[in-house]
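Objective 1b: paired records.
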Amino acid sequence: MTDELKPCPLCGSTSVYLQPVDPDDDDLSYDTEGWRVMCYACTCRVGYKKSIDNAITAWNNRVEPIGNPDEIPEWMRNKIESEINSLQNWVNDTMYPDNQYAGNLAIEKLQDVLLLKRGDV
C-alpha cells in the first residue's frame, strides 16, 4: 500500500507509512478504529480517517505551490537575513567568548537555512 503514498509534503521524504489508529489508545480520543499516514523523517501526519483509502487520499492531496517550491519565499528570506545581521552586530559587540560562539553558531545555521532546497531535509 505504501507505494501509493506520495513523498512527505513538508520534508520530501519517501519514508511514509500507514498507521492504524486504535480507539482504546489512551492518548487518542477516537471512538472507532481508523487510519492515518505519517512521515518517519519529520513526523508530519494526516489526521485520523476511517478507511485506508481516505487516509491515502488525504495524504496525497496537494495544493500546487505558487512560484518555485525550491526557493524560500522572499519575505522569509528577508526576515532570516535581518536576523543574521542582528546576530552579527550582537556578536561584534559582545565581549564574552561564549556569546560570540553561540552567536556565530546561530548565524551559521541560519545561513544554512537560506541554502536549503525542498529535498534537502
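Objective 1b, second protein:
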Amino acid sequence: MCKAAKFILLILFSLFIVHPLYAASPNAIKPDEVVQKLKSVQDKLGPWEAASSKREKFLFEKNYPEALKAGKEALKIAENTFGAENQTVAASLYGLGMVYKAQGNLTEAEACFSRSVDLYIKTVGANKNMLSAPLEELIKIYELQNRPNQVQALRARLKALNYQEK
C-alpha cells in the first residue's frame, strides 16, 4: 500500500477510535468502504509508482536510456489512468524532465518542466510545494542557456509563491 493511502487510512480509522459518536452516526463512512476506495486508488497508482521508481533507480545509476524508457512509461500510465490534466501527470513530466536534463537535452527538459508547472497550476493551483521544484529546474536550465530575462521572471514567480505561503 502506498504511503499516502496508509496515512489516509490511519486518519480515517482514528476517527472511528477517537470519535465513537461519529462512528455511530448514520452518515459515517464505513471502514470497509474506506478500505475499498483506498484499494482502488492503490491499484491505479501501483503501476505508475513502479515505473517512477524504475526511472529514479536508473537515473541514480546514470543509465539514462533505461531511465528515459521508464519515465516515458510512467507518463503514459499516468495519462491513461488519470487523464491528461492530473497532478500525477505533472509529477511524471517533472521526473521525465530530470532525465532529459541529466542527458543534456535541455530543450526536452524545459518542455517537460514547463508542462509540469502548467499542470500543477491547473490541478492544485499556485501551490508552492508543488511548483517550487519544476520552477527551480527551469531556472537552472535558463541559467545554463544564458537567458537572464527568463531567470529573472521565474525568480520573481518563486518569490511571489513564497510570499503567498506566509
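The chain has one domain: 3-22+29-165. The chain has a mean pLDDT of 83.
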